[in-house]
Amino acid sequence: MMSETLGVILAGGLARRMGGGDKPMRSIAGRTILARVIDRLSHQCDGLILNANGDAARFAAFNLPVVADSVEGFAGPLAGILAALDWAAEHRPHVEWVVSAAADCPFLPRDLVKRFQTARMEEEALLCTARSGGQTHPVIGLWNVGLREELRHALVVEDCRKIDRWTARYKLATIDWPVEPLDPFFNANTPDDLEDAEWLAKLDD
Predict the structure, then answer these.
(1) What is the pTM of this model?
(2) Neighbours of 110 (CB within 10 A)
(3) Quick check: 193 pLDDT over 60?
(4) Which domains does the chain have, with CATH numbers?
(5) Model confidence over 156-190: pLDDT tens digits?
(6) Which pairs from 135-140 meet CB under 8 Å and 24+ separation?
(7) pLDDT of residue 13
(8) Angle between helical axes of 148-156 and 77-91 (0-180°, round to 10)
């Protein structure tokens, strides 16, 4: 039986390449990027939360718990993942696994959680990450809640902010996805990416 998995959508970035603001609130083919990410993950997870900093009210329409970083100073995606692990430990203590996804990836695989959970069981891994076209996507991952204190120590004491530097300490399963007809981990970082996403959305429908 597949283990329960909490999903966290990481929306804590500063979106500098997009000119600032909330990048996930930009639209692709009439729908916000965030709405597309929620649609992809909600059917795969046993609940979703949103990691975002600042005024949580701007995401009220999505009816998700909004969890801010507990580590100050925009410490990067690992801080958002830690916040999600802490939230799971407090609010869903029976959940052992959290899957993370970037809030700017509108075409996430519909089999993401299933393949992660299968791989971590087969490989006896504590963590999973995604890869496509030979490129790893460390923000797209499966995390064991039991590692949260070790992650906190790495962030706060060691100032370790690179995901792959931290995950290298553990048994990690890396799962490949095809990039045809489109890369499921395409992320919209720039205005040009938004233009590309408009026609990619037609392939994805």
Answers:
(1) 0.92
(2) 13
(3) yes
(4) 5-204 (3.90.550.10)
(5) 999 999 999 999 999 999 999 999 999 999 988 87
(6) 136/164, 136/174, 137/102, 137/185, 138/77, 138/163, 138/164, 138/167, 139/10, 139/77, 139/100, 139/101, 139/102, 139/163, 140/100, 140/101, 140/102, 140/105, 140/108, 140/112, 140/185
(7) 56
(8) 140
